[in-house]
């Protein structure tokens, strides 16, 4: 997708518009084009509305293109007026220049603009930092917005071969020392964490937060170390779901589900975080083998207990996803476990209930015995 408007775009004809941020950065890196963000210089909200643009901004004027639905924001400056990432006053007058807009951004690699003729506007050296693979803050205003620390950490996870400039890390520590990170709301933390977990090297996000002294402040109770970082890298290689990666992240935490609740994680992520340690702890007993290589009664009982405890009969896909996640912690034959799960699910509960003439206790015992036999019969 081209990153300049077409000559036939009546909505933008005559506007002073530029593509900014991620689309320009990724084009310089040779990465696939993603969503484009536009800045409009010298326009007013009224003139944008007259052109058919749809206003969607809250704190400052942002509009959707009438056809493409891409976002067009009026060039703006900002001034710190309160605590936290919402404590800013914005100015979007027609006299705000493109350079002034770029100077309020977080990182130099995100502060490059491209004009419709392809010309790059780069007053802050972003191209040089892209080439040198460095994540560097735009200015000292970095310490005014704690979201910038989250974004720095998330970009470190996405661009894992980029270093973080030492002076930028120093400002990140100041954000923590000054208490700015304490103003972050859980929902905003979770939004950035999900993006970090979806990145090429998720562990780098939490390494950066840890080095800045922010990890305990933004994710209380999370235990993170090199072991978790390696397991997260395995999760990426194996294509694990977000819930699986989050469970790996929280695996060594004392109360993994509480870590999720504090950041308003999804219920699925919280469930995975709660169940994964149980799966990992139960696997040694479940893999006990008898002398003739068949599952010993104790092993079959442990296998059935694990399947039932994780609700594998009703939620087989989630159960197998948990096992694939556990395989990043230790060696595990997921195909064998699929066979075991299928064997247990093949037991005809209806036939057993009929044979026991509907007596609940006898049904329960007979069903368990049948499932254990199915497991024990596997070679």
From TrEMBL:
Lineage top rank: taxon: Bacteria
UniProt keyword Metal-binding present: yes
Tell me if Magnesium is a UniProt keyword of this record: yes
Q: GO:BP terms for this protein? A: RNA repair; tRNA 3'-terminal CCA addition
Task: Give all residue intervals belonging to the Poly A polymerase head domain.
Answer: 17-136
An example molecular function term from Gene Ontology annotations: ATP binding
Residue span, tRNA nucleotidyltransferase/poly(A) polymerase RNA and SrmB- binding domain? 161-222
Instruction: Report keywords, A-Z.
Output: ATP-binding, Magnesium, Metal-binding, Nucleotide-binding, Nucleotidyltransferase, RNA repair, RNA-binding, Transferase, tRNA processing
- Show the InterPro entries listed in the entry: CCA_bact (IPR012006), NT_sf (IPR043519), PolA_pol_head_dom (IPR002646), PolyA_RNA-bd (IPR032828), tRNA_CCA-adding_enzyme (IPR050124)
Q: What cofactor does this protein call for?
A: Mg(2+)
Could you tell me which Gene3D superfamilies the record lists for this protein? Beta Polymerase, domain 2 (3.30.460.10), cca-adding enzyme, domain 2 (1.10.3090.10)
Family that this chain belongs to? Belongs to the tRNA nucleotidyltransferase/poly(A) polymerase family.
Q: Which PANTHER family match?
A: MULTIFUNCTIONAL CCA PROTEIN
Q: What is the name listed in the Swiss-Prot or TrEMBL entry for this protein?
A: tRNA nucleotidyltransferase (CCA-adding enzyme)
Q: Which organism is it from?
A: Eoetvoesiella caeni
């Amino acid at each position: 997708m081209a990153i300049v408007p077409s000559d036939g775009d009546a909505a933008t004809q005559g506007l002073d518009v530029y593509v900014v941020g991620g689309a320009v950065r990724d084009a310089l890196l040779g990465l696939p084009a993603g969503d484009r963000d536009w800045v409009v210089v010298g326009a007013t909200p009224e003139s944008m509305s007259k052109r058919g643009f749809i206003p969607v901004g809250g704190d400052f004027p942002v509009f959707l293109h009438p056809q493409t639905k891409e976002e067009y924001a009026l060039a703006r400056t900002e001034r710190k007026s309160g605590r936290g990432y919402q404590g800013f006053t914005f100015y979007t007058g027609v006299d705000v220049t493109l350079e002034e807009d770029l100077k309020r951004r977080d990182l130099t690699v995100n502060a490059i603009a491209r004009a419709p003729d392809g010309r790059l506007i780069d007053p802050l050296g972003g191209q040089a930092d892209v080439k040198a693979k460095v994540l560097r803050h735009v200015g000292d205003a970095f310490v005014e917005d704690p979201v910038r620390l989250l974004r720095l950490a998330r970009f470190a996870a996405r661009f894992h071969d980029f270093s973080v400039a030492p002076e930028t890390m120093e400002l990140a520590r100041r954000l923590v020392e000054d208490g700015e990170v304490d103003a972050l709301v859980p929902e905003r933390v979770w939004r950035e964490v999900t993006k970090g977990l979806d990145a090429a090297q998720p562990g780098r996000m939490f390494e950066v937060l840890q080095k800045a002294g922010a990890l305990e402040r933004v994710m209380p109770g999370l235990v993170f170390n090199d072991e978790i970082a390696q397991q997260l890298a395995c999760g990426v290689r194996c294509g694990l779901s977000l819930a699986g990666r989050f469970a790996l992240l929280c695996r060594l935490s004392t109360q993994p589900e509480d870590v999720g609740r504090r950041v308003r994680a999804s219920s699925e992520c919280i469930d995975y975080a709660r169940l994964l340690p149980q799966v990992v702890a139960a696997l040694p007993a479940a893999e006990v083998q008898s002398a003739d290589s068949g599952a010993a009664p104790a092993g079959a009982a442990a296998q059935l207990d694990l399947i039932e405890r994780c609700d594998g009969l009703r939620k087989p896909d989630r159960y197998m996803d948990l096992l694939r996640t556990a395989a990043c912690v230790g060696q595990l034959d997921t195909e064998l476990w699929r066979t075991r799960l299928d064997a247990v699910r093949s037991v005809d509960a209806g036939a057993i209930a009929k044979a026991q003439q509907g007596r609940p206790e006898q049904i329960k015992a007979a069903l368990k015995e049948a499932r254990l036999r199915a497991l024990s019969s596997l070679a």
